[in-house]
Amino acid sequence: MRTPLCEAFGIEYPIFAFTPSEHVAAAVSRAGGLGVLGCVRFNDADDLDRTLDWLDENTDGKPYGVDVVMPMKIPTEGTSIDLKAMIPEEHLTFVERTLQQLGIPPLPEDGRDGVLGWLHSVARSHVDVALKHRPVLIANALGSPPVDVIEQAHAAGVKVAALAGAAKHALSHVANGVDIIVAQGYEAGGHTGEVASMVLTPDIVDAVGPEVPVLGAGGIGSGRQIAASLALGSQGVWTGSIWLGTEEYQQLNSHAGWVPAFTKATSSDTVRTRIYTGKPARLLKSKWTEAWNEEDAPSPLPMPLQNLLVAEAHNRINAAGDPEVVSMPVGQIVGRMNEVRPVSEVVADLVAEFEATVKRLDGVAGL
Question: Does the record's keyword annotation contain Oxidoreductase (predicted)?
Fold first, then answer.
């Protein structure tokens, strides 16, 4: 399982693993892939700096990347207080009433604010902090970052990846200077478009041409699916949901009730909705997501207002630990996440199944 991206990044396998957990990112990198740390959970630059210090020291010298959430168009952004004043009272009332109906208690006084990382200014600080360390890749979950950020990364010798849900978006990213396109299929968790991976990956590969590497993403959680993505023209895969079911992820300790929720879920138990961030994102279906489908539910607000509206609610839900209510981005691959395993075992199984699949297809081609 070697492609040109392996040489470009000094990795053994073209398996890129997005995760909010530094423990998962480090374990994936040590196992031969490229762990990519999601920075959106970091409200404080010093906290991110300390975490990247830890990654520097715990990856055995192997490469890693970081992922930020940064729209290309810089939004009008005042203080968080200014933004909160823009949230309609009916939305605030709905959220609080729903939490009470679901039996979700308030947070303790030291409950953390989990929304600042979604703000454009904070995402820029994430880039500044990251470039003081040794990432080999900066990925942006909202497509192409501003051109000056791309140039800043390139000046530091760091490549830039951007997610795309359509070929026209991929072409725009390349025109802005993005190095790698992540073809994010409909099946994926978190922010995702409307085209499934089987169609999207070859569309984007053909659109950007052979000089621009493409990573297939969305619904990938087995070696067979990696083989399929490479067959569609990708040079590697961008994975996310499968790492939520690892032992290392449980060290994050921010999602009580998550394990029983995902281990019983099927591939049909997700929903694509704007209630998480204001942009379409795939979440695990729960009593919380269903509440937003009721007749009296307001329409989700645009980003970042929806983040501000629901950030404390999500923290309260996660702290409560009720698997029937848990709010979590996850892809349709959740139906195959039936047990908690160490990262090293997951990587080994991905590689072994990939090799077995390619061998089987070699036999078919030989016929």
Answer: yes
Inter-residue contact 340 to 247 (CB < 8 Å): yes
Smallest CA-to-CA distance from 137 within 27, 33, 286 is with: 33
Beta-bridge partners for 190 = 282
Helix, strand or coil, per DSSP, at residue 324 = coil
Residues 6+ apart with CB under 8 A from 147: 176, 177
CA dist 272 and 190 (Å) reads 8
pLDDT digits over 16-57, tens only? 999 999 999 999 999 999 999 999 889 889 999 999 999 999
CB 133 within 8 A of CB 59: no
pLDDT for 258 equals 86
Domains of the chain plus CATH, in order, are 4-366 (3.20.20.70)
Question: What is the Cβ-side half-sphere exposure of residue 272, based on CA atoms within 13 angstroms?
Answer: 16
How is residue 160 written in tokens? Answer: 């830039």
**Of 336, 347, 344, 354, nearest in space to 226 by CA:** 354
Q: What are phi and psi of 31, to 5 degrees?
A: -85, -5
CB distance 243 to 24 below 8 Å: yes
Place of tokens 């823009």: 86
User: Taking a C-beta distance cutoff of 8 angstroms, is the pair 178, 142 a contact?
Assistant: no
Q: What percent of the chain has pLDDT over 90?
A: 78
Judge whether residue 76 has pLDDT over 70: no
- Alpha-carbon distance of 366 to 181, in angstroms, equals 33
- The answer to whether 33 touches 87, Cβ cutoff 8 Å, is no
Asked if 37 contacts 23 with a C-beta cutoff of 8 angstroms, the reply is no
